[in-house]
Amino acid sequence: MKQVNSNDEKEIQTAVTGQIEKISSITDKNDIKENCANSVEKILFMYATAVSDVGTVRSNNQDSAFAGEHLAAICDGMGGHAGGDTASTIAIRSLAHIEQDSRPHDVKTVSSMMETSIMAAHDAIVGKAKRERRLAGMGTTVTAVTLVKGYWVLAHLGDSRAYLLRDNHLMRMTTDHSYVQHLIDTGHITPEEARNHPQRNVVMRVLGDFDIDPRPDIALRSA
Questions:
Q1: How many Cβ atoms sit within 10 Å of the Cβ of residue 35?
Q2: 102: pLDDT confidence band, cut at 50, 70 and 90?
């Protein structure tokens, strides 16, 4: 996993400047706004990085992440050190093929690919847990986003959150598939009470060796 440093920031700034210069070179200044409006997909690009922090309580994490040109994904594993690492790695590998440059540039097709990849990861995790009983009970959350023709395609399962930061305003884009979120939705507790609830870490929908619904939420949003 890679942390952004000053060199990365310089490279990003250079890339952004290069894109702007390319646009300026193919159009008159008076036509820049019109050209951008009509060809928004040509100037949208994605930069992603992944950072993992074990914090002050645990000695290790069980998460895996992918940060590519077209896809960013995070999976938080569970089920013991070996099980959690294995489950999250399987999920990331299943999603990684969406990064291929030859992937279909169609929102509906990519949305279907995201769901199919996640369901395939679920089957692979369950199969491995059955073959290796030491991994019984392993699972993982999944949150993944890809950019397709001016749209974000967001897939989500579990309680690993996605946020949108725009105009200095942070907005949560996913709803936790957790027990406390269910209690909030049904009016039994408040969001403030959920923060210290004894079962706040119980997840109701994940990939893995559990008898629960593994289908992800898929959302589209204009970029």
A1: 16
A2: low
- How many residues are recorded in the chain? 223
Name the CATH code of domain 58-222 (choices 3.30.450.40, 3.60.40.10, 3.90.105.10, 3.50.50.60): 3.60.40.10
Backbone angles phi, psi at 27, to 5 degrees: -150, 150
Tens of pLDDT along 167-196? 999 999 999 999 999 999 999 999 999 999
Judge contact between 188 and 194, C-beta under 8 A: no
Instruction: Choose among 184, 106, 88, 86: nearest CA to 98.
Output: 106
Write down the H helix ranges in 26-106. Answer: 32-38, 40-43, 80-96
Q: Give the global pTM.
A: 0.75
Q: Amino acid letter at 40?
A: V
